[in-house]
Design brief:
The structure holds 2 protein chains of 2 kinds. By secondary structure, chain A is α+β, with helices and mostly antiparallel strands. Helices cover about 60% and strands about 10% of the residues of chain A. In chain A, helix 10 packs across helix 13. The longest helix of chain A is centred in the C-terminal third of the chain and has 37 residues. The radius of gyration of chain B is 35 Å and the shape is elongated. The chains are: A alpha+beta, B alpha+beta. At the A-B interface, helix 5, helix 6, strand 6, helix 8 and helix 10 of A face strand 18, helix 11, helix 12, helix 13 and helix 14 of B.
Chain lengths: ~400, ~550
């Protein structure tokens, strides 16, 4: 079976359209970034607090907002979490930028958010703790003190074990929320144990499943570090390609990749996705991927320069792109599919990451034939005109032939 | 089939075997049941905090405090020395954390002063103070500052490690972090509550035993002072009692005690501390401690002289209990604080591990609940499996028998990747799973490159054997170039990136290296084996 028979398309004559398209995309991205006052950084880069809360039912967002405002957290934002594979996650992210970023304790914001949650949604049963926000240790302390099984000094590790079992049941089998303490009998809690637990705890309607707090210093450091890592990686690739091909190929490839990263960042701004540490990893992956594509084409150009000495350079480039076209489409298509699956099913944590890859693979594939190859051709033309020679078997070509 | 091919096949089989042993053959060998296999696998594939839940803290040790303290001590020491040598001066003053100003040294004594500083304080540079005839500026030199900072860091790391280790969590990590900003990373897998770890890390662990001078517990500082005629005796000190300490005044909820200013025994004299079930208060715990022999020698006569009086056990400037001294005690004592089991254990461990050399500041705190980790694994595994299946179906559909070859290579690629993670003890994180998915994508790229090349050669009229040969040869160059560039960028990620980024880079690099082996070597062997078996004139299924 074969989808793509040998093509004979003239890519290089369309170069000006490609350049036009890229310029438009870049411009739109830059305008969006400027209009929105810069990129939208996640907590990793700007510092702040994010608390991920899971509810037993649909999140009471309005109540929550009022509760947060009561605690002086009017500036916090509440973002519902959803994804196509799990539309009803019943989760929200509470973001807070300003608390814990100054002289106060780092976890001031977290404490305030937790207070707001308990004040708004707690049962109000005096002296009782929310079972969904305690750990095995607290449960064990209560059980040991009350000794519902009458084990006395022979209890040993028995209550620790039982507590771990009960908490593991809550976290693994009930996704972190037990709405009725009597359900714990499924985890091996006998009626006397349940009675003690009911005395000490109440079953709340939510659970904190993730908390991230990043201080301001770390944020700015990480941002700088990310920029450096990206630049190092680009420089490393430039050197390798210059070594394997010729500097103009390396420069064209790096320019094309740079173009991909900028367009992706522009789309991040347009679609309001956060830039986080994992997104940086994704951007670097797209750099590697786009480079991959470009090299496959350059590789063919190098080979064809040896085989077709008399052809004009643009014809050789066209030919190379056409020869690798079916590979390009197949690989990009398949890789695109895998990251699309990741985007749709990978959950909230990987959302922005996979968005970068979904966009990056499209842009990266396009830039290989639309930007990198035409740049090399344009440079060749310019060199040819400079030297007063036709653009056949040019200097660039000659050198690459030897490689 | 020729002998060469047999050896290659054998080599591949050996690699597969090593990988399988790496994944499910350890630590229980040989695994006897399905559950053995499962528990082996769960033990060798270490999950990152984001997948199994846990707490991640980054803290900064305020090393400057230790430097400042050194300057304070030097100042004290210098004053004593000057007094001993009768060197007269107008003023000795700490100018900054690393500078001491000696103002107006007696003009005939500047020589001895300089000699003294140079002999006794080798870490200090001495220079004439600007604008003064006989004043000197002492500066702690850069090497000494660096040494003090390094020592403080090492000591802080060690203390924190001892305290964290004693919490009894599985595989906690305490390590220096970042580049030279005095930061320490603490990772506690499975610990969902950062507050416990933080309170243990932060606890000062300053234990002092003071003689209680006045048996009354006062409701406030003012009341205590009033009772002593407005002025406290010079050898005394007021300490606040813990809320639950005996004799708490109900009116204010506070209690204040008058104790001797100088402690009899301090935490440094402690040899061990353990939590024990309380004999007095059922359900609660006490902390028993043992003193060093040297301290015991002091403690014995002291208790003998003060029988009938109260001994205040002061922890972190707070009086815990004030038991009566009933007889001579040489080297043991009990802190009765109506502690819970965990509380008592934590206190005992803080007492054992000693005080932190400088205070700390938290820079980052992340807590992943176990239920989120479980969700993430499910999502990640789902996405991996779906993309793997989609890719496999397509490859078989598009390249037929050769597609089966690609599928075999792809599966082997993943097996090698996981086994390498297991052997290196690398941690699988969520971005790591993304790295696995990307490896699937890039692994398939190598196969597509090769197959398309073989098809081209076949179209050009070559026989299957030479088409396969040429296809592999030509595609190999491209594959090397693409892999090296990606590995280069991933290496930078691994070297300079942190946390999640590094996890991603590690899986990607291993995945790409494994892919070179599977798509180039293993695929080729399968092709050659197939070519050797099929009739000469038959067409290649590609």
């Amino acid at each position: 079976m074969e989808f793509f028979k040998q093509q004979n398309l003239d890519w290089m004559s369309k170069a000006k359209y490609f350049f036009g398209l890229s310029l438009t995309l870049l411009l739109v991205g830059v305008v969006s970034i400027i209009a929105k006052g810069g990129l939208y950084y996640g907590i990793d880069f700007k510092g702040g607090t994010v608390v991920n809360v899971r509810f037993a039912g649909p999140p009471p967002i309005d109540m929550l907002r009022a509760g947060l405002a009561n605690q002086g957290l009017g500036n916090s934002t509440i973002v519902p979490v959803s994804d196509i594979a799990n539309p009803n996650t019943n989760e929200v992210l509470i973001n807070l930028e300003e608390k814990g970023q100054g002289a106060e304790a780092l976890d001031a914001g977290k404490t305030a958010i937790l207070n707001a949650l308990h004040a708004t949604l707690g049962s109000g049963e005096a002296g009782k703790q929310d079972f969904n926000s305690v750990g095995a240790n607290e449960v064990s302390t209560v059980l040991t003190r009350k000794d519902p099984l009458g084990l006395g000094t022979a209890a040993g590790d028995r209550y620790n074990q039982l507590s771990r079992q009960i908490v593991a049941y809550r976290d693994k089998d009930r996704r972190g929320i037990v709405t009725n303490l009597n359900d714990l009998s499924a985890a091996g809690a006998t009626p006397p144990v349940l009675a003690v637990l009911r005395d000490a705890f109440y079953a709340g309607s939510f659970a904190i499943i993730n908390v991230e707090i990043v201080g301001p210093k770390v944020g700015s450091e990480l941002r700088l570090q990310a920029i450096y890592v990206t630049l190092y990686a680009l420089a490393g690739m430039l050197v390798y390609i210059a070594f394997r091909f010729e500097w103009v190929y390396g420069a064209a490839a790096v320019l094309a990749v740079f173009h991909d990263v900028l367009i992706t960042l522009g789309l991040f701004s347009i679609f309001h996705f956060e830039i986080s540490l994992t997104v940086i990893a994704a951007l670097l992956t797209l750099v590697g991927y786009s480079m991959n594509d470009t090299i496959v084409i350059f590789d063919r150009i190098r080979e064809n320069l040896r085989l077709m000495r008399r052809e004009p350079f643009d014809a050789i480039v066209n030919r190379s792109i056409n020869q690798t076209l079916s590979r390009t489409i197949l690989t990009s298509g398949l890789t695109f599919l895998t990251v699309l699956v990741l985007f749709l099913m990978g959950g909230q944590v990987l959302r922005a990451f996979s968005f970068a890859l979904v966009v990056g693979i499209m842009v990266g594939t396009y830039s290989s034939f639309g930007i990198a190859a035409p740049l090399v051709v344009a440079w060749n033309h310019w060199r040819g005109q400079e030297a007063g020679v036709l653009a056949t078997g040019t200097a660039a070509g000659n050198k690459a032939r030897k490689g | 089939m020729n002998a060469n091919l047999k050896w290659k096949a054998l080599f591949i089989a050996a690699v597969i075997l090593i990988c399988i042993i790496g994944l499910v053959g350890r630590p229980v060998f040989p695994p006897k049941s399905w559950s053995d296999l499962k528990s082996n696998f769960a033990q060798v594939i270490k999950l990152g905090l984001d997948l199994q839940g846990g707490t991640h803290l980054i803290l900064q040790v305020q090393v400057q405090e230790a430097v400042s303290q050194e300057t304070d001590q030097t100042l004290d020491h210098l004053m004593t020395q000057l007094r001993d040598k009768s060197i007269r001066y107008e003023e000795l003053r700490k100018l900054s954390d690393t500078q001491i100003l000696a103002h107006n040294i007696a003009t005939d004594q500047t020589g001895p002063f300089r000699t003294l500083v140079m002999d006794q304080f080798p870490g200090w540079d001495i220079a004439p103070a600007p604008g003064e005839a006989s004043g000197y500026l002492l500066t702690l030199n850069a090497t000494s500052v660096a040494n003090i900072q390094q020592q403080t860091m090492d000591q802080a790391e060690e203390t924190i490690r001892r305290r964290i280790d004693a919490l009894g969590l599985t595989e906690p990590l305490v390590a220096p972090y970042g580049q030279g900003d005095n930061e320490i990373i603490v990772e506690l897998p499975g610990e969902g509550d950062p507050n416990r770890a933080k309170s243990v890390i932060q606890a000062g662990g300053q234990l002092e035993l003071h003689l209680v001078l006045d048996t009354t517990a006062y409701p406030s500082e003012v009341a205590a002072e009033a009772a002593h005629g407005g002025v406290m005796p010079p050898n005394s000190e007021l300490v606040q009692g813990k809320a639950s300490a005996a004799g708490t005044s109900q009116a204010s909820g506070e209690s204040w005690y008058v104790v001797d200013r100088v402690p009899v025994v301090t935490g440094r004299d402690l040899r061990s501390a353990t939590a024990l079930r309380s004999t007095k208060n059922a359900g609660f715990y006490d902390v028993d401690f043992t003193l060093s022999t040297d301290a015991g020698r002091r403690f014995g006569p002291f208790t003998e002289q003060n029988i009938g009086k109260q001994l205040g056990i002061v922890l972190e400037h707070q009086l815990q209990t004030a038991p009566n001294i009933n007889g001579r005690i040489d080297d043991t004592g009990v802190i009765e604080g109506r502690f819970g089991e965990q509380e008592a254990n934590d206190l005992a461990l803080v007492l054992r591990s000693g005080a932190l050399p400088a205070s700390i500041k938290y820079l980052e705190e992340r807590t992943v609940g176990p239920s989120l980790g479980a969700d993430s694994i499910r999502h990640g595994v789902q996405a991996s499996v779906v993309s793997l299946v989609v890719v496999m179906i397509f490859m078989v559909f598009y390249y037929q028998l050769s597609g089966v070859n690609a599928v075999v290579a792809l599966v082997l690629n993943l097996v090698i990747l996981l086994a390498a993670l297991a052997y290196f003890g690398a941690v699988l994180t969520l971005p790591g799973i993304a790295g696995v998915i990307l490896t699937i994508g890039m692994g398939v790229d190598s196969n597509v490159l090769i197959f398309e090349r073989i098809r081209e050669e076949l179209r050009a009229g070559k026989a299957p054997g030479s088409a396969v040969d040429m296809g592999f040869k030509r595609a190999f160059l491209t594959i090397i170039d693409t892999h090296v560039t990606t590995v280069v960028s991933a290496l930078f990620l691994g070297l300079f990136g942190t946390g999640p980024v590094r996890g991603f880079a590690i899986t990607l690099v291993i995945g790409l290296l494994a892919n070179l082996f599977t798509s180039v070597y293993v695929s080729r062997v399968i092709f050659d084996w197939h070519l050797a078996k099929m009739p000469r004139e038959a067409a290649l299924s590609i």
